[in-house]
């Protein structure tokens, strides 16, 4: 028999772990084992019962894991969980044991006990049902075999201490998961833009770069990174960039700033890059204010256009898609003929087919459509 000090230490450790796991989902596996250990039990489960009989097994001890060939049988018993059904009727967020829910006759003869629980070597239960997100019923179940004896009042009291923390941890975990999904969606969206995006601080230190932003930094000698800081070549452009960053930082900090946020970066024998800067104002929370920053948008008019995407959009052949991609990048018909090693007449024939398939009537219209299509939003 563990001392009360050891039991209290296990309980405190479990509560702390619940909040740690809510903030870091990688810590969630093994939570059921911690719950079982804190109550001197052999198994534990945390699950959600939704509408239409859907059951989401959030976490359970290893001895409750059912083999794949018996999974349908296990799913059926989870849906028909007698303890859950009776607990809901008994009252939400009330700590109960099996003795509150079933009679000795049901323990002796019901299929729930004789088929399902006997297979899991479970007889006694301590737990509760509670309201969860989206109308689901949350379930905490802690179990041990018949020989271990029923749960006592002291164990009920300890379960009553843990339950509200489990509920809060689940709500926090679901909230953090939603935020993480939004964050991941935002980053993926940035990575698919045909515009490079950098986040810099007032010293031009790069805090984040999208996939296209990183590609543009690698592929353009005019964009210079020195010690993690964004700079431009020649020096006159560098000074202009620093001035625009300071102005944007002032705006982000709530101070008045001079107008002007765009910059042209010439390239030898190529069309220029265009840069636009925008203030990124900090969010305010009870845990401190985020620092202001500056968004730097970089556009390359010669950025590649996804040929495969053009074929999917407009039904082009391979050659038509290659010609269309070159047109969208601003190449002339003569340059396209030279680069592809075909005659100018052949290029014009492909142009006619491109006009027909895009529903445009002039080359300039087709170029505008191709350059602004979603095919330019694929990161290369």
Characteristic key phrases:
Arc Repressor Mutant, subunit A; Beta-Lactamase; 3 domains; 20% strand; alpha+beta
Helix content: 40-55%
| 3D shape | elongated
Record the strand order, biggest sheet: 2-1-5-4-3
Total count of domains: 3
How would you spell out the order of helices and strands? HHEEHHEHHHEEHEEHEEHEEEEEHHHHH
| Name of the level-1 CATH class of the largest domain | Alpha Beta
Main β sheet profile = 5 strands, antiparallel
Strand content: 15-25%
User: What is Rg?
Assistant: 32 Å
Task: Count helical runs.
Answer: 15
Low-pLDDT stretches are none
Query: How would you state the average pLDDT, rounded?
Result: 92
CATH superfamily of the largest domain: Transcription factor LuxR-like, autoinducer-binding domain
Distance separating the two termini: 63 Å
Quick overview:
Helix content is 49%, strand content 20%.
3D architecture notes:
The chain is an alpha+beta fold. It has 3 domains: 178 residues, Transcription factor LuxR-like, autoinducer-binding domain (Beta-Lactamase); 107 residues, PAS domain (Beta-Lactamase); 71 residues, Orthogonal Bundle (Arc Repressor Mutant, subunit A). It has 15 helices and 14 strands. The strands form 4 sheets. The chain has a 5-stranded antiparallel sheet with strand order 2-1-5-4-3, with helices on both faces. It has a 5-stranded antiparallel sheet with strand order 7-6-14-11-10. Strands 8-9 form a two-stranded antiparallel sheet. A hairpin with a 5-residue loop joins strand 4 and strand 5. Helix 1 runs parallel beside helix 8. It is elongated. The mean pLDDT is 92.
């Amino acid at each position: 028999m563990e001392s009360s000090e050891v039991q209290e230490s296990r309980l405190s450790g479990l509560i702390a772990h619940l909040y740690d796991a809510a903030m870091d989902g990688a810590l969630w596996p093994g939570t059921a084992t911690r719950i079982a250990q804190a109550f001197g039990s052999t198994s534990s489960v945390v699950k959600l019962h939704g509408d239409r009989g859907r059951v989401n097994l959030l976490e359970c001890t290893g001895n409750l894991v059912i083999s794949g060939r018996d999974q349908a049988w296990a799913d059926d018993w989870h849906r028909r969980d007698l303890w859950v059904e009776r607990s809901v009727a008994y009252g939400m967020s009330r700590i109960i044991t099996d003795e509150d829910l079933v009679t000795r006759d049901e323990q002796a003869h019901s299929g729930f006990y004789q088929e399902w629980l006997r297979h899991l070597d479970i007889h006694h239960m301590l737990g509760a049902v509670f309201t969860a997100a989206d109308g689901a019923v949350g379930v905490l179940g802690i179990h041990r075999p018949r020989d271990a004896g029923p749960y006592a009042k002291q164990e009920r009291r300890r379960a009553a201490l843990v339950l509200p923390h489990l509920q809060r941890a689940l709500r926090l975990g679901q909230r953090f998961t939603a935020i993480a999904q939004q964050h991941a969606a935002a980053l993926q969206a940035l990575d698919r833009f045909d515009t490079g995006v950098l986040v810099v601080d007032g010293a031009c230190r790069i805090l984040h770069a999208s996939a296209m932003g990183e590609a543009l930094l690698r592929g353009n000698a005019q964009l210079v990174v020195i010690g993690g800081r964004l700079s431009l070549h020649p020096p006159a452009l560098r000074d202009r960039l620093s001035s625009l960053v300071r102005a944007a930082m002032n705006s982000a900090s709530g101070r008045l700033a001079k107008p002007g946020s765009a910059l042209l970066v010439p390239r030898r024998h190529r069309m220029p890059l265009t840069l636009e800067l925008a203030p990124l104002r900090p969010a305010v929370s009870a845990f401190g204010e985020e620092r202001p920053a500056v968004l730097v948008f970089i556009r390359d008019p010669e950025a590649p256009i996804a040929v495969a995407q053009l074929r999917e959009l407009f039904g082009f052949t391979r050659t038509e898609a290659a010609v269309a991609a070159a047109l969208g990048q601003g190449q002339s018909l003569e340059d396209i003929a030279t680069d592809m090693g075909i005659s100018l007449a052949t290029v014009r024939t492909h142009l006619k087919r491109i006009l027909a398939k895009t529903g445009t009537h002039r080359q300039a219209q087709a170029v505008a459509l191709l350059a602004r299509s979603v095919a330019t939003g694929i990161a290369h």
